Here is the input.
Amino acid sequence: MTTQSTLKRQEHIAGYLFILPNLIGVLVFVVLPVIAGLVLSFTRWDLLTPPVWINIDNYKQLLHDPLFWVGLKNSAYYSLLTVPAGIVVSLLLALLVNIPLKGINIFRTIYFIPVVTSITAISLVWKWLYNPEFGILNFILEKFGLPPQQWLNDVHLAMPCIALMSIWRSMGYNMVIFLAGIKAIPTQLYEASRIDGANRFQMLWHITLPLLKPTLFFVLVMSIIGSLQVFGEIYVMTNGGPGNATLTYNYFLYQNAFLWFKMGYAASLGYVLFLIIFVLTIIQFKFLGARISYEVF
Amino acid sequence: MKRSLIEVIFILFILSCLAVMALIPFFWMLSTSFKESGKVFTYPPQILPDPFVTEGYHKIFTLIPFAKQFLNSVIVTSLVLIGQLICCSLAGYSFARLDFPGRETLFMIYLGTLMIPGYVTLIPTYIMMRFFGWINTLYAIFVPGLFGGAFGTFLLRQFFMTIPKELEDAAKIDGCGYFRIYSTIMLPQVTPALATLGVFTFMGTWNDFFWPLIVINSEEKKTITVAIATLSRSYYSTDWPTLMAGATLSLIPVLAVFFSAQKYFTEGIVLTGLKG
Amino acid sequence: MKRSMYVWAVLLVFLLTVINLQTVYAKKLVVASFYPIDKVSGWEGVVKEFKKIHPEVTEIEVQVTSGDEYLPKLLTQIASGTAPDVIAVENTPFPEFVAKGVVKDVTSYMEKTKGFSKKDFFSHLLDRYTVNGKVYGIPYDCQPQACLFYNKKLFDEAGVAYPNDKWRWEDLLKAAQKLTKKSGNRTTQYGFDPQGNWQYFVYTNGGYLVDNVKKPTKCVLDSSRAISGVQFYVDLMYKYGVSPSPAMIQSSGASSTDLFLTGQIAMSYNGFWQAVEHPKQFNEMKAGLALAPAGPTGIRRYPTGGTAYCVSSTSKEPDLAWDFITIYMGPVGHKAAYESATLGAIYPPAHIPSFNWYVSRPNPFIENIQVNGVGARYAIFSPFDGRWPEITSRHITPEMDLILRNEKPLAPTMKSISEQVTKALQSK
Here is the structure.
């Protein structure tokens, strides 16, 4: 007869065995370079000659670097604009394409197309949309008697404009994840509550949303990580301009790493960002990370 | 709940509006891939190509070893896809349902690895590839992904967490070992999540650009995404029709995978028979 | 029986030795470049020629990487000890490459190679890659920003005389005004597009970026010449309305060249590469090419970029690398490139004999290629300092962008740019 502790040990062993292949990959190909990168952040390295140990000078320097603050502010702003709105939009979209209509699969695929369409093509179409002279947006504004805007050329509007494009582009991505999350909710719960007289909105609020917490946690964490590391989309729309209005943190990091011969400094920028995201994630974990339980219906 | 006809029409209307919005850049991309270089930026912009040429596609099929490079992409993507699905589902199940010392700490470390910008770890990883002797080989592209990463494990963990414990408990009482539980009960319940991870992995690996570009030197070992980018972007200008042709060609496999993965987006759990 | 075994043994030993000798003598040369596929097909002629001279080289690996990613990749290779033997180094990162000793001094090689001495190259171009009399890189292309492309059809329609080599700013402005057309509040045709090149206006007005290009210590963008130079550019856009603003170009999604080729711009100023990258369209348009105008007082000075090919200091085969460079950058290489190029469009060689040869070839896609050779006499490069890419991106580009968008007052901003750049140059 197996005892409690033997069962426990079996579970421990199984636990380790199951994660072993994945763990090896993560340790060797990710954690090791991450540790190397951390060490590099304490050096000055021009990539042409060997790195030189300089202690925490990089970290001291970045606090006084105006571009560090500009990049951080812009990336944070972008994140604030795209994450909440993006999650709401893609969740609504997921609910929409969950409706069992014939051919809904075609719509799902169509909404996913912007995610895989070349960013160069997307940026071009949106530049035309935002064009002050012949773009649709100003056309609509003028029809309503409102003054036309400069959009991407306006220091204050450029980032929101790009954020709008990003939300539109990636709504299909998170839609897929939310859809999978919705599909994981047992249909019996909905049937039972319908018998109890609940309407669709009540079902959404009391069943769907609470049971989507694990999915929501995933989408939220990954969206924040992705938005704070944004680079390509912005670069292709505005090159960081006008002035430095859309210079993002990750692009500034890239410049230091590969254009300005300051890889050590770039590494320190990377770890500061890591710290910020890590703290944010722990906060989210407190609110959303709990394991869900199904109330007995 | 039955929906009235008005409701259905209204829903279809919304779906269609959104669909049109989603398709516009795609159509522009497709149309441009058939345009002549000089006609891409006429004012006003042409909606349909005139003249209709296939120069962009022609360049892709003749100026680069397309077949070989396409095959490289297929090999790399397939291997990583299989590896990710297997390793991440095993690890995701373990993090979600198996208790072992250090589980939560290890998971936080996993999450942590997603938060470092890739440019910082690029050169250390490159040096590691050099140490293994994998520079300019496909190994450098697919081996790191073969064991799955933190992203897939994170995703699947969240989905494994949504499966009611009752299912497992019933199986344990029946005397199933952990692997049996995993393969016969847990996996089938998360097919939508597996399909999602499959699509994302396929998309990410197929379109991966920067790393393969850094690590591969010879033309025949390049993946198709890198090859087309090198072909259509010179130092001073962009060859739009070729770039768009390449983007269209890259998009088709991913979309095909997505569409066929839709059949796995079925209702998951059946709870009857577990109560009492 | 024993005898035949002997024979087999000897044969085996002989075979093994030969195989090992092959490995010992097998040599490999690695070349890195960022010219795209269809310009690399010229490589085949070069590689063939090189193998004739060096049959012992068993493998030549040519790594072609797209422009934006070339430097990150090269830096990664150097950082991990896998630098190619022959490397293309653009003029902007070049100062840092020399300062850190990653490129080899090839002066003695030049002296030993016929037809490859210092006087065989455009002196201003070679000078960029020469430090204290020692040459560290061989310039590949001669493309100073001295080209004024113009749309003959639009000129004929407006009844304006074509640009000539005597033009100064006033002639440019007068012609541009006649060539600008509006429809409502939208300009449908711009007379002149300097493509954001404000440095041209600073230089031809008699101003400079720094006190000494080779050893910069002070930024002089606050001089009255520099300020009034840029003022003219700003006026072209916002006072006379003959040039497109950065906002307009960015919103169009197109590059300036695209706009020129679709007839929305009558005169386009930049370097020759515009035509090289779009030979068919330039050929169809029958675009004209004149030397870019001199400044109001007749000063000629053209900002210049360009790339050099260098031997990496960690190369195990520097002699082979040098031989490859002489073939690639000499008559053989340029001839091979010309023959495989569309309509013979190649970057004009910086090697003078090759340049003269190229100019005498039929070049249906554009006329007047010798403009580049003339422009090379007035070429000026960006300041020679390893920190210059960072200094530009930090202090100059964002501010100049706002000045050119007419969103910041010109003189005070240029003074502040000057102060910051000087401070950066003088700090350690």
